[in-house]
């Protein structure tokens, strides 16, 4: 079986808590105990995962990132959800919430958006199979392991999926800097899908035309746009504010 490496304490902890097959946990000797490291070792013991302690220099040689925090796990590749599984999870939901990404190719942006989606209780994140960053160890690290707890599916055609989501009763809202309606004027309380595009290209024409509503984030300073992960976070949490008000996490 082919394995990939996930690095960093939080990402490793969420990976160990997940359902994927783990080959080995590598820990640098001399890493300060306590906090996340103690949790990591406890989960490894509970799941009978092999733990290897290595000299820090050797672990750094094996690591693929500078921010590994002295912890590496070798794990089977990420398991995507299927579109069918996503659709089944949405059936009957009065407040279904899905995020779709159009041509977001930076793994750090994908990881950040996935982390926000998971934190906000979004039901699923849908990515096109082409012109998009896949879920890699870099995405895992950027999401602090949140992708392990989020349904992520790849789709062959974003527009077709948007139409299918409409048939399931979801309102499809796209974000575009040229839109006439600001995001806080939009009613986002019902079942809906949010579509975000890349900073450079925005949404493709057919994607824009398939949306039921386009919204913008007003810019009051001199910069012309926001990073896509920041923009997604703003709109996602506006939707949660409208849906839950000042409730705490009830997921």
Structure commentary:
This protein has helices spanning 9-17, 35-46, 56-62, 83-90, 107-120, 137-142, 158-167, 205-210, 228-244; strands at residues 4-7, 22-28, 51-54, 71-75, 97-102, 124-128, 152-155, 171-175, 181-182, 192-197, 213-216. The mean pLDDT is 93. With 251 residues, it is an alpha/beta fold. It folds into 2 domains: 4-75, 60s Ribosomal Protein L30, Chain: A; 83-244, 3-Layer(aba) Sandwich (Alpha/beta knot). The two termini are 34 Å apart. It has 9 helices and 11 strands. Helix 5 links the parallel strand 5 (97-102) and strand 6 (124-128). The strands form 2 sheets. A 7-stranded parallel beta sheet has the order 7-6-5-10-8-11-9, with helices on both faces. It has a 4-stranded mixed beta sheet with strand order 1-4-2-3, sandwiched between helices. 38% of the residues are buried. Helix 5 (107-120) runs parallel beside helix 9.
What is the topological layout?
Elements: E1 4-7, H1 9-17, E2 22-28, H2 35-46, E3 51-54, H3 56-62, E4 71-75, H4 83-90, E5 97-102, H5 107-120, E6 124-128, H6 137-142, E7 152-155, H7 158-167, E8 171-175, E9 181-182, E10 192-197, H8 205-210, E11 213-216, H9 228-244
Parallel strand pairs: 2-3, 5-6, 5-10, 6-7, 8-10, 8-11, 9-11
Antiparallel strand pairs: 1-4, 2-4
List keywords for this structure.
251 residues, Alpha/beta knot, 2 domains, seven-stranded parallel sheet, four-stranded mixed sheet, 9 helices, elongated, rRNA_MeTrfase_TrmH, RNA methyltransferase activity, transferase
CATH homologous superfamily caption of the largest domain: SPOUT methyltransferase, trefoil knot domain
In the residues, how many domains can be counted? Answer: 2
Mean of the pLDDT scores? 93
Per CATH, which architecture of the largest domain? 3-Layer(aba) Sandwich
Give the C-alpha Rg. Answer: 20 Å
The profile of the biggest β sheet is:
7 strands, parallel
Q: Give the SSE order as H and E letters.
A: EHEHEHEHEHEHEHEEEHEH
- Structural class determined from secondary elements: alpha/beta
Shape: elongated
What is the number of strand segments? 11
InterPro entries: Alpha/beta_knot_MTases (IPR029028), Ribosomal_eL30-like_sf (IPR029064), rRNA_MeTrfase_TrmH (IPR004441), SpoU_MeTrfase (IPR001537), SpoU_subst-bd (IPR013123), tRNA_m1G_MTases_N (IPR029026)
Family: Belongs to the class IV-like SAM-binding methyltransferase superfamily. RNA methyltransferase TrmH family.
GO molecular function, one term: RNA methyltransferase activity
Organism: Candidatus Solincola sediminis
